[in-house]
Design goal:
Keywords: Coiled coil. The chain is mainly α and 932 residues long. The protein is 61% helix and 5% strand. Among the domains are: 126 residues, no CATH class; 168 residues, no CATH class; 38 residues, no CATH class.
Length: 932
């Protein structure tokens, strides 16, 4: 073979073999370039065959077919390597987090203690200052009161001595003037009392004239009318009371009665007779309805075995009143109902009854209003008569009740003193009389005549009465004034002479041991600054009540004990002021200016003291809380001094070591220590975020590259020749994933770039701070996904976040020119898949718009004879893109195309038992076909 220039060579590595095929233009793809190209090529070649079915209705299957999962695995592997690289820093990060948590808790509690201490110091300062000002004010106020009390004491002493002399003199004068005035008052009273009855009669008569608008001459007529009206009202009221007492007032009112007593008596009698007749009739009917009484005609009718005619039943009811046995009074009776009915002779019927012929005597019988015995149903008849009997009983009771009412009403008027007059007065009062009685005219004849006499002598009676009344009132006023004046003077003297209340010397007002008197005298000498002046008072121009009030007021001012007590209070207040000054100087270096006007009238700082106590208690409670929480083993060191700085130095010694710490900067020093630890973890977080960003850059690039390939494939499909039979065109559509939007990657990278830039604006959210709380690289990435806009409804995991295929979806479809989608026949679907494979091979290893390289291109088709007309389409596509079709099938594939096909026919060797074929027969041209 070598002599003919043919060389046979074997390779242990397929890469070299593939390179030779590519370099000699036998393959259009350099399969030796990378494993992915080789793998993609093999997958596509297998997908041409029906034995390797592609699920075109699933986005995941399309993405896996077009791009596989090698890129996702590569990126995930790189991420795992990064996780391993960060394992060494995780320990430091965790320790830092623990230290941050520990220091943060202590710092928070200690900072809160500082706030409570500041509040305690501020409330203490407010309370101490207010207390100092209050005691200063109180001391000055007591001093002024002491001076004022001493001055009042001297003035009050003078006033009490002068008023006592005046009251004694006035009392003696009134006592002398009061002799002989009692007889004068008695005489005036007797004269007045004699004229009062006559004057009262006159006033009553005058009031009647005004009320009746008449004169004395017509007053007699009014008196007579009023007396007649009063008598009439007395009769009416008496009858009304009697009617009410026997319960007949409503009955009398609801019935119409005659106006005259004679007619009333006749009406009563007529009503009684009518009621008696009705009662007799009702009792007769009751006897007729008594079906248990053999004497009842109803009983006889019930036991007849036939129904009664209307006339028979009406006749029985009519003659029920007749007894069944011969009466003593020799009246009518009905011994035999049967004989009566048989002898019944009816003549001359009328509309409401009929006439009976009783042996020549005519008697009219009314038809019964309701027939009962027109049936033989005895139970029905009994039920009716039972109800009828109950109704009769009720009606009989009502008739008897009304009969008793009429008899009671009859007796009521018969028993009156003058029945006729009183009945007619009650029935029809005199309308000529006035409507109402006049109380002033309800007088006896003698009293009325006396009133008329007083009207005639009106002028004399009035003048005498007014003069007597004036004299008597003046005597009373004079006597009352003297008594009141003398009583007031005695009260004044009583006040002045009571040693328990009125004394000008302390030893006369209370019992003491002499120390108080001596102290009082010393106070008077100490505060007597000016010589005493004597004032004179005009008591005659004042009311005695005013003088008594002033005495009571001055008595309080001459109380030496009050002055002594006030002096003692002043000394105590002065000492309290000095104590407050000492306390303030312990708190501050300088006293406030106590002379400023703004400090006057300060209230006692009770509320301020309570506020300070509350703040102090709050501070100490939190101080103890910190010790019990963090320094339980060292609590013996602190005692009860509650030293703020000592607590801080023991609470966080590592933060304050080698530091110049003061109460003002200790919180800042702790915060600085905490910031240093946070910065260490922030740097670790920053490295984790930068690593994630670099990995996401690769994911972003892979997503873009795969979408670009999908776009180029779709562009391949939109060419004119890529139509399936029936005019359907294949499309590969791209869409963003609804669960994993690529925007979160862009947001994440932009935030990272902004926060790491020298000129970044960190006014928005701090991504580093949000992610710093996550420890592992996986946790950081998942948190970044949600923080930067990832869907909260998705349960994110690392493989999906790092898989480029997660961020988009592909849809493979066949649509007509009008946009109608067709699921396609089996042949159409297979042709479409083959077209997808060709399109994918057209972009592997080739840049966009770059011509394809020369080489052998082929598509293996399984059982191509089943494709029908689509095989022609595949043939045209294969010819257009320089592809060869390789197919194995049971039958032939259409008509043999000379110069365009090679056919190899396999057939079994029947001479062998084993499944071995004969060497294949080759058909390379039309000449190789033997039609015989």
């Amino acid at each position: 073979m070598e002599n003919e220039g043919l060389i046979c060579e074997s390779w242990q590595r397929l890469k070299s073999y593939h390179e030779i095929l590519y370099n000699n233009n036998l393959l259009p793809l350099n399969l030796a370039e990378n494993d992915k190209t080789l793998k993609d090529f093999a997958q596509i070649i297998q997908s041409f065959s029906r034995g390797k079915t592609l699920e075109t209705n699933k986005s995941s299957s399309l993405k896996n077919f077009l791009f596989g999962d090698s890129e996702a695995k590569r990126i995930h592997k790189k991420f795992k390597e990064a996780v391993k690289d960060f394992e060494s820093e995780m320990g430091e990060y965790g320790r830092n987090r623990q230290e941050i948590d520990r220091v943060t808790r202590k710092q928070k509690d200690y900072a809160e203690l500082k706030q409570k201490k500041d509040k305690r110091d501020e409330t203490q300062r407010t309370w101490l200052k207010q207390d100092l000002l209050y005691k200063y004010q109180n001391r000055n106020t007591l001093l002024e009161k002491l001076k004022e009390s001493i001055s009042d004491y001297r003035q009050a002493s003078q006033y009490l001595m002068q008023v006592e002399n005046w009251a004694t003199t006035e009392n003696d004068k009134i006592s002398e003037a009061s002799q002989g005035t009692a007889d004068q008052t008695d005489r005036a009273k007797m004269a007045y009392d004699d004229l009062v009855p006559e004057h009262n009669s006159l006033k009553k008569a005058q009031n009647l004239l005004v009320k009746l608008n008449c004169n004395a001459q017509s007053l007699q007529k009014h008196y007579e009318q009023n007396r007649a009206l009063r008598h009439q009202n007395h009769i009416i009221k008496a009858i009304q009371n009697n009617l009410t007492a026997i319960g007949l007032q409503t009955y009398f009112k609801e019935n119409q009665w005659p106006e005259t007593y004679k007619e009333f008596v006749i009406a009563i009698q007529a009503k009684l007779e009518k009621l008696t007749a009705e009662l007799k009739l009702k009792n007769t009917l009751k006897g007729y309805a008594n079906l248990t009484n053999p004497e009842s005609l109803g009983y006889w009718a019930l036991h007849q075995e036939r129904a009664l005619s209307r006339e028979e039943e009406s006749a029985l009811v009519h003659f029920q009143k007749l007894p069944r046995v011969k009466p003593v009074d020799r009246g009518q009776f009905l011994p035999s109902p049967e004989e009566f009915i048989q002898a019944l002779s009816i003549i001359d019927p009328e509309e409401d009854g009929f006439w009976l012929n009783l042996n020549g005597i005519r008697e009219f019988v009314s038809y019964t209003p309701q027939r009962i015995f027109d049936t033989t149903d005895k139970e029905k008849i009994k039920a009716y008569f039972n109800a009828f009997s109950d109704k009769l009983d009720s009606e009989i009771d009502l008739l008897q009740e009304e009969t008793e009412q009429l008899k009671s009403l009859q007796r009521l008027f018969e028993e009156r003193e003058n029945p006729k007059k009183e009945y007619e007065t009650y029935r029809q009062p005199d309308k000529e009389l006035p409507e109402r009685e006049i109380d002033g005219l309800n007088l006896s004849q003698e009293e009325f005549e006396k009133s008329l006499h007083c009207l005639k002598d009106e002028k004399r009676i009035t003048e005498d009465y007014e003069q007597a009344h004036k004299d008597y009132q003046q005597a009373l006023m004079d006597n009352e004034w003297r008594e009141k004046k003398q009583k007031s003077l005695k009260a004044i003297l009583e006040l002045l002479t009571n040693p328990a209340k009125t004394s000008t010397q302390p030893n006369e007002r209370w019992k003491d041991n002499g120390d108080t008197t001596a102290q009082f005298n010393e106070i008077l000498e100490e505060y007597t600054l000016e010589p005493e002046t004597i004032e004179h008072y005009d008591f005659d121009s004042e009311e005695t009540e005013t003088i008594s009030s002033k005495i009571a007021s001055h008595q309080q001012k001459v109380d030496a004990r009050q002055i002594v007590d006030l002096s003692n209070h002043f000394k105590e207040a002065d000492k309290g002021l000095e104590d407050s000054k000492t306390t303030w100087l312990k708190f501050s270096d300088q006293l406030p200016n106590l002379e400023e006007g703004e400090y006057h009238y300060v209230q006692e700082p009770i509320k301020e003291r309570l506020v300070f106590n509350t703040a102090e208690t709050d501070y100490q409670a939190h101080y103890k809380h910190i010790i019990s929480t963090y320094l339980i083993g060292d609590q013996y060191k602190f005692g009860t001094n509650f030293d703020f700085m000592e607590l801080g130095e023991n609470l966080l010694p590592e933060a304050l070591r080698d530091q110049a710490v003061t109460e003002q900067n200790i919180i800042d020093r702790i915060q600085h220590y905490l910031n240093e630890i946070n910065e260490k973890n922030r740097q670790i977080t920053s490295r984790k975020i930068q690593k994630i960003k670099s990995i996401l850059d690769e994911v972003d690039a892979a997503v873009g590259e795969q979408l670009n390939v999908a776009r180029r494939i779709d562009n391949f499909f939109t060419a004119d020749e890529k139509q399936i039979t029936g005019g359907y065109q294949v499309r590969l559509n791209r869409a963003h994933s609804s669960n994993y939007l690529k925007e979160w990657i862009n947001t994440f990278k932009n935030d990272v770039d902004n926060q790491t830039s020298l000129f970044s604006d960190n006014s928005g959210k701090d991504l580093f701070n949000e992610l710093a709380l996550e420890r592992s690289l996986e946790e950081v990435m998942v948190k970044a996904f949600y923080t930067c806009g990832g869907s909260k409804t998705v349960k994110a995991d690392i493989p999906r976040l790092l898989d480029p295929a997660s961020y988009y979806d592909l849809t493979f479809s066949m649509k007509s020119a009008t946009g109608r989608t067709n699921i396609g026949s089996t042949g159409q679907t297979y042709a479409a898949i083959s077209l997808l494979c060709i399109a994918r091979l057209s972009v592997i290893g080739r840049k966009e718009k770059e011509r394809q390289k020369t080489g052998l291109r082929f598509m293996p088709i399984d059982e191509a004879e089943g494709l029908g007309s689509n095989f022609d389409l595949l043939y045209d596509i294969a010819e257009e893109y320089d592809y060869q079709i390789i197919s194995m099938s049971v039958g032939s594939v259409g008509r043999f195309r000379d110069g365009a096909q090679y056919v190899y026919i396999l057939h079994k060797n029947t001479d062998q038992d084993d499944p071995v074929n004969f060497p294949p027969m080759a058909i390379w041209s039309q000449a190789d076909i033997n039609y015989e």
